[in-house]
Specification:
The chain has 257 residues and is mostly helical. Helix content is 77%, strand content 0%. The termini are far apart.
C-alpha cells in the first residue's frame, strides 16, 4: 500500500515535470506515509475555520497537491472574506508557482484586510523585486503598468505608516523596470517620461544610459550624447558608455560636435 501511494505521488510530480521529486517520492516512501498520516489527522478535525483549513492546505502542499491547497484557500477566502490568512495563503502558493502577478494581487488583498501588518507589505514588495529580476516584468507592458501602479500604492501606504523604515524595493526600481518594458514594446514617449521621472529622485547611471539609448533611437543625438555623459559622470560602466558616445558622435554629429 505504501508503495502504491509513493507511485501515485510520483505521478503527480511527473505531470508537473519534476523528475527529481518523483524519484525522491519512490526512494523515500516512509516520508509520504508521514504526510499521509498528517492529512488523515487534519481531515478528521477539519472545519471551515482557518485554523483547520490552513494546516490542511499546507499538508496537501507537502503531499504534492498544490491545486487542492489552492482550492482550500479559495474556499476559505469565499466563506471568510474578512480573514487575511486566506489571501496570504493564496499569495504564498502563487509565489511558489512563480505566478508573481497573482501573488502581488493576493498580498494586496491581505494588506487591505490587515493594513497594520508591515510584513504583508514587505512580502509583496519582495515578490515584485523577484519579478523584476526574473525578466518577466516587461513581457506584457499593459500588465506591467497595472503591477507598477499596485506596487507604488503599496509603497506609499507603507511609507506613510512606517516612514523611517526603508522598503525592500524603491519606487525608482519599479519605474525603471516599467520604462524598459515600455521602450522594448516601442512605446518611446511613455518610456521617456518614466525615465525622466525616475531621474528626479537622483542620478542613476543605468537610467541615464537607458535614456541616452532611447534618445538615440528616437532621433535626438545631441540629447543622447548629453545623457550618456551624465551616465559616465554618475558611474556607468565606462567601456559601454564611451563606445555608445563615440558611435553617436561619429554617426550623427561628425565634425560639428
Amino acid at each position: 500500500q505504501l508503495r502504491a501511494i509513493a507511485l501515485r505521488v510520483a505521478a503527480l510530480y511527473l505531470v508537473r515535470g519534476d523528475v527529481e521529486l518523483a524519484r525522491e517520492a519512490v526512494e523515500r516512501p516512509e516520508r509520504l506515509h508521514r504526510v499521509e498520516q498528517q492529512l488523515v489527522e487534519h481531515l478528521s478535525t477539519a472545519s471551515e475555520r482557518h485554523t483547520d483549513l490552513l494546516p490542511l492546505a499546507e499538508a496537501y502542499v507537502d503531499f504534492g497537491r498544490v491545486d487542492v491547497a489552492r482550492a482550500l484557500c479559495l474556499r476559505g477566502a469565499l466563506n471568510q472574506p474578512d480573514d487575511p490568512a486566506f489571501p496570504l495563503c493564496l499569495a504564498h502558493l502563487a509565489r511558489q508557482r512563480e505566478l508573481y502577478s497573482e501573488s502581488v494581487y493576493e498580498f494586496s488583498e491581505a494588506i487591505r484586510l490587515a493594513p497594520d501588518d508591515r510584513g504583508y507589505y514587505d512580502e509583496a514588495l519582495r515578490v515584485l523585486g523577484r519579478l523584476v529580476q526574473s525578466g518577466q516584468y516587461g513581457l506584457d507592458p499593459t500588465r506591467s503598468r497595472e503591477l507598477t501602479a499596485q506596487a507604488i500604492s503599496i509603497l506609499q501606504q507603507r511609507t506613510e505608516r512606517w516612514p523611517g523604515v526603508p522598503p525592500p524595493i524603491e519606487q525608482t526600481e519599479l519605474t525603471f523596470a516599467l520604462a524598459v518594458a515600455e521602450m522594448n514594446a516601442g512605446n518611446a514617449s511613455e518610456a521617456k517620461a518614466l525615465l525622466q521621472a525616475s531621474l528626479r529622485a537622483g542620478d542613476d547611471p543605468r537610467i541615464w544610459a537607458e535614456l541616452g539609448r532611447l534618445q538615440a533611437r528616437t532621433g535626438e543625438p545631441r540629447a543622447a550624447v548629453e545623457s550618456l555623459q551624465r551616465a559616465l559622470s554618475a558611474g556607468a560602466d565606462p567601456s559601454i558608455a564611451q563606445l555608445r558616445l563615440r558611435a553617436l558622435r561619429t554617426e550623427y554629429l561628425g565634425d560639428a560636435w
